[in-house]
Write a structure and sequence with these properties.
With 326 residues, the protein is mainly β. It is built from two helices and 19 strands.
C-alpha cells in the first residue's frame, strides 16, 4: 500500500510482558502472534515491496480454463499470498479478454468446543485454525486492469490494491486453448529508488542515429511523470569542442512515454555522420510511480544509473556512425 507514512507508524505497538504469576486470557495469548505478524508484514511492505516471489505461472489448459502453478507472492499489505496445488481456474464467469489476478484470502476452519463456556449465550464452538490461500480474481474491465498492471495505485479502487496481476487471458478462437500474456510483477523494494536501466546507444561510443530510447527499472508516475521537452534535452555538435545546438523532435513531436511507463522515446531528425549527440535527462523532475524522483546520476557512464540520492542529471553522449537513420 504505497504511502509516505506506513500504517505501522500510526498505531501503538504492544507486546506481552511476562512475569511469574501472570494471569493469561485469550487476548494475551493472541497478542504475541499479532505483534509478530504486524511487524513482519511491515518489513515485507517497506523492505521488499510487492509482487511475485516464485512460481504463479499461468498456462492455458483449454478454451475455458487456465492453470496457475504453485507459488508465492507478496501483496501491497505485506501479506504472503501462497497458492499450492489447486484446481484449474475456470474462465466461464467472465468475458474475455480479462486480467487474472490473485489476492490474499483467509478462512477459519476446524470448529471445536471450548473447554469452558463463560455464559449460556457464549458460542458453543470456536474455530481452531485460520487457513490462508490465494484467491483467483478476474478483472474484465480493460481500464481497471490497466491501472492494476501499471501499478497506477493513485487512481485505483481500494478494492484492487491487494491484487497481484498474473496474466491477461484472451480467447484462442475456434475452440483452441486460450491465449495467455504474462504480466507478472517482479518483486521490487519501495525503498529503492528507480534508476535508468538502459539506453539504445553506447555511451561515449559510435552508433547510427535513431530515435533515442531510455528505459527505467520501474514505471514512472501515471500523471506527474514529468516527461517533456524541458526534461529530456538533446544537443548536437560538429565536434567535441564545437558549440552545441539544441536538437528538437521533428514535426512538432515530443518525448513519448510508452504504455508501460517504463520507456521514453525521443524522436530525432537526421544528423550528419561524425557529429556528436549529447543527451541530458533532468531527473529531479522525472517522478516514479511512488512519487519519488528518479535516481539519474550517470556515474562513470555505467548503467543502471544512480548514487542513492533522488534526482540528479543523467548525461550521456555518442558520435553518429556511418549509417544515419532519421
Amino acid at each position: 500500500m504505497p504511502s509516505t507514512v506506513d500504517p505501522l507508524t500510526t498505531q501503538h505497538l504492544e507486546r506481552n510482558r511476562y512475569f511469574t504469576g501472570k494471569a493469561m486470557a485469550a487476548r494475551d495469548f493472541a497478542a504475541d502472534p499479532d505483534y509478530s505478524l504486524r511487524v513482519h508484514r511491515a518489513h515485507n511492505r517497506l523492505c521488499h515491496g510487492w509482487g511475485i516471489l516464485d512460481g504463479l505461472v499461468v498456462s492455458a489448459v483449454s478454451s475455458t480454463c487456465v492453470r496457475v502453478s504453485p507459488g508465492v507472492g507478496l501483496d501491497r499489505y505485506g501479506r504472503e499470498v501462497v497458492r499450492g496445488t489447486q484446481p484449474d481456474v475456470d474462465m466461464n464467469p467472465c468475458s474475455l479478454p480479462a486480467l487474472l489476478c490473485i489476492r490474499y484470502h483467509e478462512e477459519t476452519t476446524e470448529p471445536v468446543p471450548p473447554v469452558s463456556v463463560a455464559s449460556a449465550s457464549a458460542p458453543q464452538s470456536e474455530y481452531n485454525r485460520v487457513r490462508e490461500s490465494a484467491e483467483p480474481v478476474w478483472v474484465a474491465d480493460p481500464t481497471r486492469w490497466q491501472k492494476i498492471v501499471t501499478n497506477d495505485w493513485l487512481n485505483q479502487s481500494d478494492d484492487d490494491l491487494d491484487l497481484i496481476p498474473l496474466a491477461v487471458v484472451g480467447n484462442g478462437g475456434n475452440g483452441q486453448p486460450c491465449a495467455v500474456e504474462s504480466v507478472r510483477q517482479s518483486l521490487f523494494s519501495p525503498s529503492r529508488l528507480t534508476r535508468i536501466s538502459s539506453v539504445n546507444w553506447p555511451h561515449n561510443g559510435v552508433a547510427p542515429l535513431r530515435d533515442l530510447v531510455v528505459g527505467f527499472e520501474r514505471p514512472l508516475h501515471a500523471t506527474a511523470h514529468g516527461v517533456s521537452p524541458n526534461t529530456f534535452l538533446v544537443h548536437t555538435a560538429a565536434s567535441q569542442f564545437a558549440d552545441r545546438t539544441r536538437l528538437p523532435c521533428p514535426d512538432g513531436r515530443t518525448p513519448e512515454l510508452d504504455s508501460t511507463r517504463k520507456v521514453i522515446t525521443y524522436p530525432v531528425p537526421a544528423v550528419p555522420v561524425g557529429h556528436w549527440v549529447y543527451v541530458s535527462l533532468l531527473c529531479d523532475f522525472l517522478t516514479d510511480e511512488n512519487g519519488l524522483p528518479v535516481d539519474g546520476s550517470h556515474l562513470g557512464g555505467q548503467l543502471p544509473s544512480g548514487n542513492g540520492v533522488p534526482g540528479g542529471v543523467f548525461d550521456s553522449w555518442f558520435q553518429t556512425g556511418a549509417t544515419v537513420t532519421p
